[in-house]
């Protein structure tokens, strides 16, 4: 690179695994005079981006314009960096353990855009490394390298057989490097693997045999014409000859006529058969069978509540004659202050009841209570000791609702895991005093949630929930309240605050005990209304187009939307299929008529657009140029006949609220 | 950029119609009247039967039906585009600092509207001049809990200045605070104070018809125009709409 003390235009990258090695090399090269005049640069992890980028750019610039010739890099530069413009030489100072990483390093120069004909990649080997292969002397570099080479080869073999390597060899590699071992011993590992290997071999043999037998069976069947139709014919003829009644067609669930089954889970099996018939047009079996005892059906066991499985306790509050917000405020204050008493006394053992989870049936009610917690409840908790409880400071309040942005929800869930613990509190205080970032986050005092909390929130530490008003569905009530008391550390307490002005709440309050003792049997089945007019508006076009496209391949390509003919047999087939499905699901002639007329409308519109292709091409989805799309995305424009939703769950767009900061028309004092 | 949040169109019809209070995460607002909606950005619903049906109920002055205002194509990407949407206004107009209890109106400028460009849901009022605050972040100001409402549903702010001065001419300028004492949360434990003349009054007076300047003295601002004539001076304390049933 420096023939006769003058730099030429060659460049080289030197990869090292460790930053320390890199520094050492830097010093070494500096002593030799390679560093001066910006000829050498370094890239390493932990280097700020604004320093790294100029170096990468300089290295990619033509050598005539940029002085840099040598780049010392750690693996920080081994991925996602382009260095190939004016450099075709690379040196691995040492071999990385992971071959993948080596490949990545090489990829910096050996990649698209490399102008040189040849890329030179160097790494060091021991002197005469071929000759000393057999010497096996402990301690010299050659032997070490040789050992590693052998280890690498062994690793490959064992991985092929077993899939696990690390534990077997790792300790031996270490020993060898410390000079205590000169040979690799994998016999034990191989011995252990022997039975597995034998079994694998046996399995392979078995598979071969099975394949052979299967093909034989197939051939014999073919020779003897043993098809189901054939057998059916034989039986039919036989029955006729014997003057017996003919065969009766039957349906065997999951076997005939449609052998595909669907496994679904449900909260209640009440009316499940009806729902399944409507949605899937299938019969239904329930698994697991209920068995003879509901307490122990083999698949499920009912355990009594006790210290080991503490379960949940339900409490109902109905404050007759008091306004509902007052009842809510008092319940919140009482529960939170009481939890504080426990916490003062028992420290983190009281953690389950320190985060109060408020459950609400609507955002409107939740929003109101949020204001209350921020203001009224917070203020009262400051003086709760006057009521025989304990003072409490509400430090952290959060809500788990659709009003929160999707990016915040995971953070909230994560922080919900942080616990009330005096030692952590003290630590945080100390850290804050020292000006450090606290190592743990402040746990939530109150979490206000809508039914967002009912599904999938698995936070074991929660033990206290206040439900504002009886939820509309029992299943919702069970789902929501079972978020608390999930661990043996904290039995759950669920307190439902009923609104005496609502007849529904009142009736629930009156039957409180019975309802809670048996609430699993109160779970309501949801109604399903397939093929309702509005569902068809939204979904029919998509289903119809999909069927036409996928039936066979003559309408499949994107541009084939415009080639469908007036008399294409698919029109009738698709129309009949959908009609049949609607009839099977509901047995309603009105629905049948509606779906037929809707399909006819869509057919007419589609064909109109096919005939209209004078100066453009009709595709399913526009491809640009002179193409137009048959299908349209929902939400872009008005709803048309071929507007398709991406998901039938999409219901409605949103409108923004805009704050008007003028004071026009407002009455102030 | 004055966007605050969003609603589904059906919520605008059923729950949060014109004149209703919407509790957003950090601010409480009221949906403004239709005359303030920018119909240039509203799409007309061309459905004659629906128009006829509504006219039958409301009379022929109802001529057209519109969807709520939405952005036009491309406005989403244009930073200079005006904020389009359903207009709302901060209500109640009186706010209280959550730290120092200072009570003042939105117009006063004591509280500043704090907006996050990318997170409209974080919009809130803050008390930047709070004397009690030691942190860099100013404490939040929250809507005051009391409103006047008449039986006809007319809403107005509680007459704080008149109330605390008990019918006398209010101080000019007057600085108010609203403090809560005790654990009961009763109206008698909430005190409004004018720091200029050092008078203070308990909120319980406002509920009492026998006290001078109490319930009897408060009137619906719309009494003269209240259609039914049924509008009577009734005052309801509002721990925020929402929960009260």
Describe it:
With 669 residues, chain A is of the alpha/beta class. Chain A has helices at 19-31, 49-60, 99-106, 141-161, 166-177, 187-224, 228-241, 272-280, 324-346, 363-382, 408-415, 422-433, 474-481, 503-510, 512-517, 533-551, 569-586, 589-611, and strands at 12-15, 40-43, 70-73, 89-92, 120-123, 312-318, 356-360, 397-400, 446-449, 464-468, 492-498, 617-619, 627-629, 632-633, 643-644, 655-659. In chain A, the strands form four sheets. A six-stranded parallel beta sheet of chain A has the order 6-11-10-7-9-8. In chain A, helix 4 runs antiparallel to helix 5, helix 16 (533-551) packs across helix 18 (589-611) and helix 17 runs antiparallel to helix 18 (589-611). Chain A is extended and about 100 Å long. The relative contact order of chain B is 0.13. In chain B, the strands form three sheets. An eight-stranded antiparallel beta sheet of chain B has the order 7-8-9-5-6-12-13-14. Chain B is α+β, with helices and mostly antiparallel strands. Chain B is flat and about 60 Å long. Chain B has four helices and 14 strands. The longest helix of chain B has 11 residues, at 48-58. Strand 16 (655-659) of chain A pairs parallel with strand 4 (86-90) of chain B, so a sheet runs across the interface.
Features:
heterodimer; A: 669 residues; alpha/beta; six-stranded parallel β-sheet; five-stranded parallel β-sheet; 18 helices; B: 245 residues; alpha+beta; eight-stranded antiparallel β-sheet; three-stranded antiparallel β-sheet; 4 helices; 11% helix
What number is the mean pLDDT of chain A?
A: 83
Structural class of chain A: alpha/beta
Shape of chain B: flat
The outline of chain A comes out as: extended
State the order of secondary-structure elements of chain B, H for helix, E for strand.
EHEEHEEEEEEEEHEEEH
Summing up helix and strand content along with how strands pair, one would put the structural category of chain B as alpha+beta
Number of strands of chain B: 14
């Amino acid at each position: 690179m420096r023939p006769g003390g003058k730099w030429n235009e060659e460049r080289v990258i030197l990869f090292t695994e460790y930053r320390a090695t890199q520094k050492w090399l830097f010093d070494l090269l500096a002593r030799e005079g390679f560093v001066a005049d910006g000829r050498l640069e370094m890239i390493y992890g932990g280097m700020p981006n604004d320093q790294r980028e100029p170096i990468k750019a300089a290295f990619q610039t033509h050598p005539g314009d940029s002085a840099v010739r040598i780049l010392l890099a750690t693996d920080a530069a081994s991925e996602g960096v382009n260095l190939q413009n004016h450099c075709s030489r690379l040196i691995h100072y040492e071999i990385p353990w992971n071959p993948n990483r080596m490949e990545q390093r090489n990829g910096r120069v050996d990649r698209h855009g490399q102008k040189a004909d040849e890329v030179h990649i160097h790494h060091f080997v021991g002197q005469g490394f071929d000759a000393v292969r057999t010497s096996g002397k402990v301690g010299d570099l050659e032997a070490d390298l040789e050992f590693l080479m052998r280890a690498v080869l062994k690793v490959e073999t064992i991985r092929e057989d077993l899939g696990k390597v690390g534990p077997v060899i790792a300790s031996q590699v270490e020993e060898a490097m410390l000079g205590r071992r000169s040979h690799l011993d994998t016999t034990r590992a191989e011995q252990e693997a022997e039975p597995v290997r034998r079994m694998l071999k046996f399995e392979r043999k078995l598979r071969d045999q099975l394949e052979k037998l299967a093909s034989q069976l197939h051939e014999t069947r073919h020779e003897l014409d043993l098809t189901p139709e054939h057998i059916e014919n034989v039986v039919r003829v036989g029955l006729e000859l014997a003057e017996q009644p003919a065969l009766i067609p039957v349906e065997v669930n999951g076997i005939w006529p449609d052998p595909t089954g669907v496994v679904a889970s449900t909260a209640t099996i009440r009316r499940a058969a009806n729902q399944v018939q409507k949605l899937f047009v299938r019969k239904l079996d329930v698994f697991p069978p209920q068995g003879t005892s509901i307490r122990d059906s083999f698949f499920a066991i009912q355990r009594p509540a006790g210290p080991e499985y503490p379960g949940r306790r339900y409490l109902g509050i109905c404050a007759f004659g008091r306004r509902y917000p007052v009842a809510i405020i008092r319940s919140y204050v009482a529960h939170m202050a009481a939890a504080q008493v426990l916490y003062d006394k028992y420290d983190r053992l009281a953690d389950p009841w320190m985060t109060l989870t408020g459950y609400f049936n609507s955002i409107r009610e939740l929003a109101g209570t949020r204001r209350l917690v921020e203001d009224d409840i917070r203020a009262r908790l400051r003086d709760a000791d006057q009521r025989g409880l304990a003072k409490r400071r509400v430090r952290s309040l959060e809500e788990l609702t659709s009003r929160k942005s999707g990016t915040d929800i995971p953070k909230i869930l994560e922080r919900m895991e942080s616990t009330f613990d005096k030692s952590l509190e003290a630590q945080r205080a100390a850290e804050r005093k020292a000006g450090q970032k606290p190592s743990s986050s402040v746990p939530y005092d109150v979490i206000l949630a809508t039914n967002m909390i009912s599904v999938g929130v698995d936070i074991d530490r929660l033990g206290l929930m206040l439900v504002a008003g009886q939820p509309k569905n029992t299943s919702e009530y069970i789902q929501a309240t079972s978020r608390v008391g999930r661990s043996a550390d904290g039995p759950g307490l669920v307190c439902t605050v009923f609104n005496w002005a609502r007849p529904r709440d009142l009736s629930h309050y009156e039957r409180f005990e019975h309802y809670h003792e048996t609430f699993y049997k109160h779970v309501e089945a949801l109604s399903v209304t397939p093929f309702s007019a509005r569902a068809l508006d939204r979904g029919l076009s998509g289903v119809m187009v999909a069927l036409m496209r996928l039936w066979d391949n003559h309408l499949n390509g994107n541009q084939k939307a415009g080639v469908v003919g007036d008399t294409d047999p698919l029109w009738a087939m698709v129309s009949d299929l959908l009609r049949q499905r609607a009839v099977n699901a509901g047995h309603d002639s009105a629905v049948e008529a509606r779906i037929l007329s809707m399909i006819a409308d869509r057919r007419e519109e589609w064909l109109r657009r096919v005939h209209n292709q004078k100066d453009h091409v009709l595709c399913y989805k526009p491809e640009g140029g002179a193409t137009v799309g048959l299908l349209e995305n929902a939400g872009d424009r008005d709803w048309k006949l071929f507007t398709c939703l991406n998901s039938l769950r999409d219901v409605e767009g949103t409108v923004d609220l805009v704050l008007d900061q003028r004071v026009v028309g407002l009455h102030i004092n | 950029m004055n966007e605050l949040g969003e609603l589904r169109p059906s919520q605008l019809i059923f729950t949060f119609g014109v004149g209703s209070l919407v509790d957003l995460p950090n601010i409480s607002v009221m949906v403004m009247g239709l005359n303030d909606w920018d119909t240039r950005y509203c799409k007309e619903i061309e459905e004659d039967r629906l128009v006829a049906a509504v006219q039958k109920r409301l009379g022929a002055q109802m001529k057209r039906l519109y969807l709520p205002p939405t952005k036009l194509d491309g406005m989403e990407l244009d930073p200079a585009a005006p904020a389009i949407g359903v207009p709302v206004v901060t209500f109640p107009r009186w706010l209280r600092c959550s730290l120092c209890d200072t009570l003042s109106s939105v117009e006063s400028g004591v509280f500043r509207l704090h907006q996050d460009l990318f997170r409209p849901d974080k919009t809130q009022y803050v008390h930047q001049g709070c004397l009690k605050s030691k942190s860099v972040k100013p404490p939040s100001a929250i809507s005051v809990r009391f409103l006047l409402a008449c039986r006809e549903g007319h809403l107005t702010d509680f007459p704080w200045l008149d109330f605390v001065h008990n019918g006398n001419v209010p101080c000019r300028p007057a600085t108010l605070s609203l403090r809560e004492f005790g654990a009961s949360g009763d109206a008698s434990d909430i005190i409004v104070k004018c720091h200029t003349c050092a008078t203070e009054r308990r909120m319980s007076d406002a509920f009492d018809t026998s006290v001078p300047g109490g319930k009897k003295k408060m009137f619906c601002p719309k009494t003269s125009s209240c259609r039914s004539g049924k509008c009577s001076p009734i005052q309801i304390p509002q721990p925020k709409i929402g929960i009260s049933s």
